[in-house]
Design brief:
- The chain is elongated, with a radius of gyration of 17 Å.
- The longest helix has 38 residues.
- The chain has three helices and no strands.
- It comes from Halobacillus seohaensis.
- Keywords: Cell membrane, Membrane, Transmembrane, Transmembrane helix.
- Its main location: membrane.
Length: 109
């Protein structure tokens, strides 16, 4: 029972993380277009990319975590649990890419 509850807490933490990632994307996009001071075409493009990529990453995170949660639940029941390396690596790489785009965006402002 303790393992299942820990698995559920981890699932909910990933959901909160996905919502935060999407929120940051919306925030950057909305601030970019409401401040509207000295905007360039590249700045507009990057703001849109950040918004879209953040939403895609958030939705992808939720989908991947739902499958991982179900797989872990079954693995806990069968006592054959394995650490999910590929999910973590994929999401980490995608977050790094978005962080680099953030850096480029803030450096051109």
């Amino acid at each position: 029972m303790q393992q299942h509850m820990a698995d559920e807490r981890t699932f909910l933490a990933w959901i909160r993380t996905a919502i935060a990632i999407m929120g940051v994307g919306f925030l950057v996009t909305n601030l970019h277009f409401t401040v509207n001071t000295g905007l360039t075409g590249l700045g507009d493009f990057l703001a849109n990319i950040i918004g879209i990529a953040s939403v895609v990453l958030g939705v992808t995170t939720i989908i991947m975590v739902m499958f991982a949660y179900l797989k872990k639940t079954e693995a806990i029941n069968n006592q054959s649990f394995r650490t999910p390396k590929y999910t973590t690596i994929f999401l980490g790489i995608f977050v790094i890419i978005i962080a680099v785009v953030f850096g480029v965006y803030f450096s051109i402002l």
